[in-house]
Amino acid sequence: MQAGRTVLAQLMDFVPKHEFDKCVRRYGGDKRVRSLSCYGQFLAMCFAQLTGRESLRDIETCLRAVGRKLYHAGLRSPAPRSTLASANEKRDWRIFADFAQILIAQATRLYAGEPLGVELAGAAYALDSTTVDLCLGLFPWAKYKQTRGGVKMHTLLALRGNLPSLVVITPAHVHDVNVLAELAFEPGALYVMDRGYVDFAQFHRIHQAPAFFLTRAKRNLKFRRRTSAPADKNAGVRFDQTGVLADPVSRRRYPDTLRRVGYRDLETGQPLVFLTNNTFLPALDIAQLYRRRWQIELFFRWIKQHLRIKAFYGTSPNAVKIQIWVAICTYVLVAIARKRLGLSSSLYTILQILSVTLFEKTPILQALSLMPHADLQAELDNQLYLQGI
Q1: How does pLDDT run across 52-76, given as a tens digit for each residue?
Q2: For labelling, which of 105, 222, 280, 350 has a CA lying 20 to 30 Å from the CA of 51?
């Protein structure tokens, strides 16, 4: 029965609590805790993500404003900002990182049948990173330039459902290709990445998995063509070739056959050259798959704009990592709810509605599936305007 329960409480029904408790026990998160448990901390931080709170004081004030409704959402009382600050500083961030991986695995199974737009039996992933800038005066541990600080969020995004499959948080100075060396590649999967990840030794490791990679070729690539397939120039395909690397050093790192596909974007006229070890997908599908790589750019932009990972609630490495991992948990939790409730609205629309209905006592399916009433729509429009979207 959902009658009398807040939307937030119903959303938290999608949290596998027993799995969360396992993560807490693994790192002793609730040891000697008197007031704010790890789950209470998680709820308060999720609330902050969903409603766009700017500071710990902001979180405390808003939680106090809803009073008795907190209990039904799982919080015994409003979390004092000093208690929440202490929890973010001292509790092991791996509790939330491990729980995020559990949610990601659950969401990946739910979205496994999502259409990809091309005939590809295996999984498809986009790999990229984004830098979250930090004030060097407040975050001296995150220095990566003379006057700037930051951390880098390396993300493997499953293109079926646009869900993060793996997230690695490093100092901002860590080069993208270093993370590629740490990945375990899934047999039969295809990995789409930009030119920053070109490393022929790592590409050969993908090839031996056996899996597939797709990237843009660098302008100075030395390639010895062996065969050419017919190219549909009306569709934008300029050439479709197989061959080997001509540079001796690169050839030692990747001795097997490669495929080079030339494509001209019909909308912009931009010429693109792709490099892959996949020899059976049509050339046009290769171009379309690389275009899907932009989903990860949209994910980064979305998570920076709509989840609170720009205004941090704490300044230690531990507090920053907790906030990023809770942001990812929130994103994936809403994706799980969307799928299980059978909603067709975008995640962005759902999050916007949640931001103003969390403490309404309405069945969650009704709150998220119906067109917003006039007052709610006006509030959503106002939020869109204030965020410049």
Answers
A1: 888 888 888 888 887 777 776 667 7
A2: 105
DSSP for 48-65 reads HHHHT--SHHHHHHHHHH
What SS3 state is found at 238?
strand
- Is the CB of residue 190 less than 8 Å from the CB of residue 254? no
374 part of a folded domain: yes
Which sign, positive or negative, has the C-alpha torsion 329, 335, 336, 337? positive
Distances from the Cα of 129 to the Cα of 153, 182, 263, 291, angstroms: 5, 14, 25, 17
In a domain, 158, yes or no: no
Strands (E) across 187-235 are located at 190-193, 212-216, 223-229
User: How confident is the model at residue 380, as a pLDDT?
Assistant: 45
Residues of the chain with pLDDT under 50: 1, 372-389
Task: Judge whether 229 lies within some domain.
Answer: yes
CA–CA distance, 286 with 275 (Å, rounded to integer)? 9
Indicate whether 14 and 86 sit together in one domain: yes
Q: Which structure tokens are listed for 254? A: 């990747």
- Within 10 Å of residue 273's Cβ, how many Cβ atoms? 17
Q: What is the number of domains present in the chain?
A: 2
Structure token pair of residue 112: 């496994």
Q: Name 127's bridge partners.
A: 156, 193
Dihedral angle, C-alpha 31, 34, 38, 39, nearest 10 °: 130
Work out whether the CA dihedral 343, 345, 346, 347 comes out positive or negative. Answer: negative
Q: Which helix (H) or strand (E) holds 156?
A: strand 149-158
Distance CA 161, CA 114 (A): 6
How is residue 206 written in tokens?
Answer: 């993908």
Q: Are 181 and 158 in contact (CB under 8 A)?
A: no
Distances (CA, A) of 241 to 231, 278, 283, 296: 9, 12, 10, 28
**Tally of residues, the chain:** 389
Dmax over CA atoms of the chain, in Å, equals 73
Tokens of 97: 């990182």
Q: Does 116 map to a domain?
A: no
Could you list the residue range(s) of the whole structural domain that residue 16 is in? 7-97+314-386
Please report, for the domain that includes residue 236, its CATH number. Answer: 3.30.1370
